[in-house]
Amino acid sequence: MTEEQQSRPLSGIKLLSFAQLAQGPAAVQLLADLGADVIKVERPGVGAFERSWSGGNAFINGESLFFLGFNRNQRSLTANLKDPRGKEIIERLILDTDVVVENYRPGVMDRLGLGYDHLAKINPTLVYCAGTGFGSEGPYRDVAGQDLVLQAESGLTSITGRRHDPPTPTGAAIIDIHAAALLAFGIMTALFSRERTGVGQRVESSLLEAALHLQMEPLVYFLNGRWLRGRSETGIASTFHGAPYGIYETQDGYVALSMNPLSRLATVLDIPELNDLSEADTYTRPDEIKRLINPVIASKTSSESLALFRANDIWCGAVNSYDDLQQHPQIEAIAAFQSFDHPAVGEVKVLRGPVRVGSDSDRVLARPPMLGEHTREILAAHGYSGGEITALTDDGVV
Question: Could you give the 3-state DSSP secondary structure of residue 273?
Fold first, then answer.
């Protein structure tokens, strides 16, 4: 471990990752960015699912950009978990491991003989974190969980989009990433508890719970009998915000208007009819209000509209494309996009870690590993001789 890694807040925390897809790896990467020593356990010769899949079939020189975006600051160990010798490797590593993360379907780790009950007997201080699709209990326990599936099942698609559009999913896998943040939060909470009690515990969060948590505001209204209108015809951006909340077309693009007093908009946009409407009307007559505002904003460019709004303390935003983000002054200021060099790909651009603790804690220290790159190093550190490692390699155990 480098001196820089040792200076990070989670330095000294050892994490064994059986994470796959997006939910688990994104959670693990949050902890790796902050200094946790992460060993990613992968199948010999095959590797994790993310190595062989990438959205948009985005591979460079055979390397998955999906994998490269979710697995930095980690080491790769190959082990055949169905071979008793592979299981013995994991059991030996568990002796000095702080955290295990897995997001297989419920029961998979138990069938491999590596579930929480077994591993906790080997190391009672272990924090074992399970990410699931629908939870480890209930009738949907064994149903495959995936971001779009959970957007649909949780009701999120039903409240998104215009009234006459089909239920509308978001443009990014937001549930996977929010679930990852909740898993990382749960792990940190369990580690903090262990500092007080000396005892580890099992942590769990599901994609379903993450999807519901994202909708905490409208669900609380609904569950307590408060009225939520249907989706808007004109594009009010939620079922519970009042007008003018939504997206508006300009001469050369679009701008977003958030919650704003109608009286102020009446003055700034010279729409006196807005003065005749009450706060209650913003909820009961949102489409009518948006139709009053639409043509005025459409007569201006996006930059003209934004300058006018910001000069008058109106909450607004530019509707940017991904191309726009590369020149966005605030994104540049916070160094949100970073890069590292990869032996097969060259320069790879990624997002920096979203949490900063102390100085320089967000910088990428180690690129994502090649498959099995650290197997020999890890096994040697846990007492395997050179001859034993060679035999395990020759037999396909690692």
Answer: helix
- Distance in Å from the first CA to the final CA of the chain: 23
Give the C-alpha separation, 266 to 285, whole Å: 16
Q: For 363-376, write each residue's pLDDT tens digit.
A: 677 999 999 999 99
Query: Catalytic annotation on 252?
Result: no
Per-residue pLDDT tens digits for 292-322 = 999 999 999 999 999 999 999 999 999 999 8
- DSSP class of residue 228 equals -
**CATH architecture assigned to 3-214+332-394:** 3-Layer(aba) Sandwich (3.40)
Tokens found for residue 15: 């994490």
Look up the pTM and report it.
Answer: 0.89
Instruction: Using alpha carbons, select from 380, 387, 386, 394 the residue that is nearest to residue 92.
Output: 380
Q: Determine the Cα–Cα distance for residues 66 and 332; give it in Å rounded to an integer.
A: 23
Q: Which two tokens stand for residue 358?
A: 């102390």
Q: From the candidates 96, 176, 287, 323, which is the catalytic residue?
A: 176
Give the side-chain half-sphere CA count within 13 A for 40.
33
> For 136, what's the count of Cα atoms within 13 Å in the CB-facing half-sphere?
17
* DSSP per-residue letters across 59-90: EETTEEHHHHHH--SEEEEE--TTSHHHHHHH
